[in-house]
Design a protein that fits this description.
heterodimer, A: six-stranded mixed sheet, B: mainly alpha, elongated
Chain lengths: 256, 246
C-alpha cells in the first residue's frame, strides 16, 4: 500500500501540489486524472522520488520515503516498475537486452536464468519472438508492451504508468489497459496510472483520484464517477455533448 | 543561468560521475562499447587528417625556407616539433571535440528528452555514473593512443609530401626528425591529451544531460557542447603550455 499525506510541491513561485492526501491499495488499478497542468505528472514523479516534495510524506508499505537512507531507497526502487509515456526503451539495446537490463543490474542470475525470465515476461505480453528486434523496429503498441515487460521483469510491488495510452489507437489502448489490469491482479501490485483517456478511466479505474489545480478534487471508483454530481469532475469527464447524453441515458436507465 | 552557476553544476555532476559503478560487469560492457564508439570509430578521421596536416606543414615549411643558409633538415625538424607539440594533441582534440563531443551531447540529450534517463533513475541507477564514467575512462585511455598515432602519421605525411613534390630529400627529413629529440615533449603532449580527453568526455555530457525540451534543444545542446569543449580545450592548452614549457 502507498500512503500519501499532505503532499506539497513547488517549482519557484509555482505551487503545483497543494496538500494531497490519499492512498493506493494492493491489487487495484488506481488512476490519477485531471486537466493538463493540474499536477498529475508532478504527483506521479513525486511518488517515484524523481521530485522531492517540500512538505508531506509518501510511504511504501510503512516505509516513509524521505526517512530512508540511500541504500534503502535503492532497494525500494528495485521494487518499482515504471511504464513511461514514450515507453523510454533504450534505443541502443534490443528488446531482450532492454528487458534483461534491470536483472543484469540488480540480480545475480546467470545469463541462462535471465533469458528464461525474459521469455516468460515476453510471453506474458504476447511478444515472444521479438527478442532480437530493436525498439525502432516495433510499433507504438508493441513498444508499450515491451516497456510493460521490462517494468514487471523484477516482480515489482509497485507499478507506475504515465499516460500508457498516449499515441495509441483505441483498440491497442484497450489491449494495454487490460494488460495493466491483468498483471496488477496477477502480481498483486499497487498500480498507479496517470491518464486522461476516459476509456481507460471507465475500463480499469478501480480507484480514481481527480486533481484540479494541485488539489484532490474528487476520489472514488469508476462506477461512482458515473453517478457523482461533483461539478468539477462532471465537467471534466463529460465535457462533450455526446458523453453528457450518454450519462443522462445511463442515469435514467439506472433509476428505472 | 550565469557562467558560474554552470561551472558549479558541472562540478556537482562530476561528483556523481566519479562514484563506484553499481555493477562492474555492466560497467565493463559499457566501457568496451564506448571504446568502440568514441575511440575506434574516430581512428579513421584522425589518421586521414593528421596525415594531410603533416604534409601541409612540411610543404609550407619547405616553401618558406628558400634561403641557402637555412639547412633543409629544418623541414623535418619543424614538422616533427609541430606535430608533437601542437597538431598531435591540440588539433586532434579539437577534431574530436566536434566529432565525439556532438555524439556524446546528442546521445545523452536524446536519452534525457525521451525519458530514458528518468527510466534509469526510477530503477535506482546513478544515471550519471552509468552513462558518463565509461565515456571518461574510454577517452582517458584511448585518446593518448590516438594522439600518438596522429603524431606518427603527421610526420609520415610530411615525408610523403616531400617525396611527392620533390621539395626535399628523405635523408634531410630524417636528419631533421632525429635532431634534438626531447622526450619531455612526448610527455607534455600526453599530459595535454589526457586533460583534453577528460574535457571531451565531460563537457558534452554536461550539455546533453541537463538539456530540457525536445529535439531542437538537443540539437542546440550539441552545438553548444562542441563550442564550449573547443573553448575549454584552447584555453587549457594555453595554461598547460605556460605551465609545462614556460
Amino acid at each position: 500500500m502507498i500512503e500519501v499525506k499532505n503532499l506539497h510541491k513547488s517549482f519557484g513561485d509555482a505551487h503545483i501540489l497543494k496538500g494531497i492526501t490519499t492512498s493506493f491499495e494492493k491489487g487495484k488499478t488506481n488512476l490519477i486524472i485531471g486537466q493538463s497542468g493540474s499536477g498529475k505528472t508532478v504527483f506521479l514523479k513525486s511518488l517515484l522520488g524523481l521530485h522531492t516534495p517540500e512538505l508531506g510524506t509518501i510511504s511504501f508499505d510503512g516505509r516513509v520515503y524521505k526517512d530512508l537512507n540511500i541504500e534503502q531507497k535503492r532497494e525500494l526502487r528495485t521494487e518499482i516498475g515504471m511504464l513511461f509515456q514514450g515507453s523510454a526503451l533504450f534505443d541502443s539495446l534490443t528488446v531482450e537486452e532492454n528487458i534483461m537490463f534491470p536483472l543484469k543490474m540488480f540480480s545475480n542470475q546467470s545469463k541462462k536464468e535471465m533469458l528464461i525470465r525474459v521469455d516468460a515476461v515476453l510471453e506474458r505480453v504476447n511478444l515472444l519472438g521479438s527478442n532480437r528486434k530493436f525498439p525502432a523496429e516495433l510499433s507504438g503498441g508493441m513498444q508499450k508492451r515491451v516497456a510493460i515487460a521490462r517494468a514487471i521483469v523484477m516482480n515489482p510491488k509497485y507499478l507506475f504508468c504515465d499516460e500508457p495510452n498516449s499515441g495509441l489507437d483505441p483498440q491497442t489502448a484497450t489491449v494495454i489497459d487490460n494488460l495493466i489490469q491483468e498483471i496488477t491482479k496477477e502480481y498483486q501490485m499497487v498500480t498507479v496510472v496517470n491518464s486522461h483517456d476516459m476509456n481507460s478511466v471507465m475500463e480499469i479505474g478501480e480507484k480514481i483520484i481527480f486533481l484540479k489545480d494541485g488539489h484532490k478534487a474528487w476520489e472514488g471508483t469508476n462506477k461512482q464517477m458515473v453517478i457523482t454530481d461533483n461539478e468539477a469532475i462532471v465537467n471534466f469527464v463529460y465535457s462533450s455533448n455526446l458523453f453528457k447524453k450518454i450519462r443522462e441515458v445511463y442515469l435514467k436507465e439506472s433509476k428505472l | 543561468m550565469n557562467y558560474l552557476e554552470h561551472i558549479g553544476k558541472y562540478f556537482i555532476m562530476l561528483r556523481q560521475v566519479f562514484k563506484r559503478p553499481q555493477k562492474w560487469k555492466v560497467f565493463r560492457e559499457m566501457l568496451f562499447r564506448e571504446i568502440d564508439d568514441l575511440g575506434l570509430k574516430s581512428l579513421g578521421i584522425i589518421m586521414f587528417i593528421s596525415f594531410f596536416i603533416g604534409g601541409v606543414v612540411a610543404i609550407q615549411t619547405a616553401l618558406n625556407v628558400d634561403s641557402p643558409f637555412i639547412p633543409k633538415y629544418l623541414i623535418g625538424f619543424a614538422t616533427k616539433r609541430s606535430m608533437i607539440l601542437e597538431f598531435g594533441p591540440t588539433f586532434t582534440s579539437v577534431i574530436l571535440a566536434g566529432k565525439v563531443g556532438s555524439y556524446i551531447a546528442s546521445s545523452i540529450g536524446t536519452m534525457r528528452v525521451t525519458e530514458q534517463i528518468d527510466a534509469l533513475e526510477v530503477m535506482g541507477i546513478n544515471s550519471l555514473n552509468y552513462l558518463v564514467l565509461p565515456k571518461v575512462i574510454a577517452t582517458l585511455f584511448f585518446y593518448p593512443l590516438l594522439v600518438l598515432i596522429a603524431m606518427f602519421l603527421g610526420i609520415f605525411g610530411g615525408w610523403a609530401a616531400g617525396i611527392l613534390t620533390d621539395l626535399f630529400y628523405t635523408t634531410d627529413y630524417i636528419n631533421g626528425i632525429q635532431m634534438d629529440f626531447n622526450p619531455f615533449f612526448i610527455k607534455y603532449a600526453m599530459v595535454k591529451s589526457v586533460v583534453f580527453a577528460f574535457v571531451i568526455a565531460t563537457v558534452p555530457a554536461y550539455h546533453g544531460y541537463y538539456v530540457k525540451g525536445g529535439s531542437l534543444e538537443v540539437g542546440r545542446a550539441s552545438t553548444q557542447a562542441v563550442v564550449w569543449t573547443s573553448v575549454v580545450i584552447i584555453t587549457l592548452n594555453y595554461f598547460l603550455t605556460q605551465m609545462l614549457l614556460g
